[in-house]
C-alpha cells in the first residue's frame, strides 16, 4: 500500500480518526499490541487498527479508496498490498456478510494486520496472507474473487529519495512490484465481470488507464481527487471491469478541503459514512 507524500502536510497530519493514536481503550500490556505500536479508532470506535508509532502508517489515501469501492453484500474481496489491512477491515465492518482476503508482502505488516483482525473479532471473515503479488499464481486461486482493491507503490525505482525504513521504502517505491504487477495479479484472481478499484497519483493516470485496458480490466468509473478547489488533481480513483465493454463514467472531482481550509462538505459526508459503518 502506498502512503502518499503527494498530499499537503495538513492532509497527512490530520488523519480522520476517533483517537490520537495512543491506543485508546487498550492497556499497554494488551497481548495484541506491541510497545512500538498504537491503535487508531474508526467507525465511532467500533473498528480499531494497529499501526506502528514510527514507520509505515496508513494515510487518507486508504480512506478515499475504501469510500470509492462499492461492494455487494456477499462479495469476495481481495486486497493486494494490504499494509495494515485498514481497507479490508473497513469493508468487512461495513457489510457483515462480506469476506475479504488481504495479501501483504512484508512479514511484520502481515502479522500486525492479523492482530488487527483479531482485535476486531473478524477472523471468520478477514484472512491475511503473506505473499508476493508478483507470484500470486502460487497462492491465490484464479477467478475466485468478485472485486480486487489496491493502493500500490507509486514511485518508480531510481526516482526520489528512498526511505531508509524498509517498510516505508517498499510501500512507496516500486521495489517489489509495479502497478502492472498489481493489475496482472488482479486480472488472474477476478472472476469474469469482476471489478478492480485502485487509487494512484494523477500524474501517472495515463499509465494506469493504459495498463487496465491492456489487461482487459476496462476502466468504467473514474474520479480525480484534489486538495482544494483550483488545485491540481493529486490522485485518480479508478474502477475497471474484467472483460467489460467501452464506456467510462467520469465522476465529478472530489475536493478534500474547501476554500476556508476545513474538510469539504463531500469529504465530511465520506468520513461520516465511514464513521457510521455497520451501526
Average predicted confidence as pLDDT: 84
Q: What is the makeup of the main sheet?
A: 9 strands, mixed
Distance between the terminal alpha carbons, to the nearest Å?
Answer: 27 Å
> Structural class, from helix and strand content?
alpha/beta
What is the overall shape? globular
* String of helices and strands: HEEHEHEHEEHHEHEEEEH
Which ranges are low-confidence, i.e. pLDDT below 50, for 5 or more consecutive residues?
1-28, 166-171
Helix content: 25-40%
What is the count of β-strands?
A: 11
Strand content: 25-35%
Rg over C-alpha atoms, rounded to the nearest angstrom:
18 Å
| Total number of helices | 8
Question: What distinguishing features does this structure have?
Answer:
279 residues, alpha/beta, 9-stranded mixed sheet, two-stranded antiparallel ribbon
Task: Break the fold down into its secondary structure elements and pairings.
Elements: H1 9-13, E1 37-42, E2 47-52, H2 60-68, E3 76-80, H3 86-94, E4 99-104, H4 107-119, E5 126-130, E6 145-150, H5 166-172, H6 179-189, E7 190-201, H7 205-214, E8 217-226, E9 233-242, E10 249-250, E11 254-255, H8 265-275
Parallel strand pairs: 3-4, 3-6, 4-5, 6-7, 8-10, 8-11
Antiparallel strand pairs: 1-2, 7-9, 8-9
Amino acid at each position: 500500500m502506498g502512503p502518499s507524500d503527494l498530499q499537503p502536510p495538513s492532509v497527512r497530519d490530520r488523519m480522520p480518526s476517533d483517537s490520537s493514536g495512543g491506543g485508546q481503550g487498550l492497556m499497554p500490556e494488551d497481548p495484541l499490541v506491541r510497545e512500538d505500536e498504537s491503535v487508531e479508532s474508526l467507525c465511532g470506535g467500533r473498528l480499531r487498527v494497529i499501526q506502528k508509532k514510527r514507520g509505515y502508517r496508513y494515510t487518507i489515501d486508504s480512506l478515499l479508496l475504501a469510500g470509492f469501492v462499492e461492494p455487494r453484500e456477499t462479495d469476495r474481496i481481495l486486497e493486494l498490498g494490504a499494509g495494515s489491512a485498514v481497507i479490508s477491515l473497513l469493508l468487512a465492518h461495513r457489510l457483515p456478510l462480506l469476506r475479504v482476503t488481504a495479501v501483504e508482502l512484508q512479514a511484520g505488516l502481515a502479522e500486525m494486520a492479523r492482530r488487527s483482525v483479531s482485535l476486531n473479532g473478524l477472523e471468520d471473515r478477514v484472512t491475511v496472507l503473506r505473499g508476493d503479488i508478483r507470484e500470486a499464481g502460487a497462492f491465490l486461486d484464479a477467478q475466485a474473487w468478485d472485486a480486487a482493491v489496491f493502493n500500490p507503490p507509486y514511485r518508480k525505482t531510481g526516482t526520489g529519495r528512498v526511505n531508509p525504513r524498509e517498510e516505508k521504502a517498499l510501500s512507496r517505491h516500486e521495489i517489489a512490484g509495479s502497478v502492472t504487477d498489481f493489475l496482472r495479479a488482479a486480472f488472474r484472481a477476478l472472476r469474469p465481470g469482476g471489478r478492480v478499484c485502485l487509487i494512484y497519483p494523477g500524474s501517472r493516470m495515463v499509465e494506469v488507464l493504459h495498463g487496465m485496458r491492456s489487461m482487459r480490466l476496462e476502466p468504467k468509473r473514474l474520479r480525480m481527487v484534489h486538495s482544494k478547489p483550483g488545485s491540481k488533481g493529486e490522485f485518480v480513483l479508478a474502477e475497471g471491469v474484467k472483460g467489460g465493454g467501452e464506456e467510462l463514467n467520469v465522476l465529478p472531482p472530489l475536493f478534500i478541503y474547501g476554500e476556508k481550509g476545513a474538510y469539504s462538505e463531500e469529504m465530511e459526508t465520506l468520513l461520516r459514512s465511514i464513521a457510521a459503518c455497520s451501526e
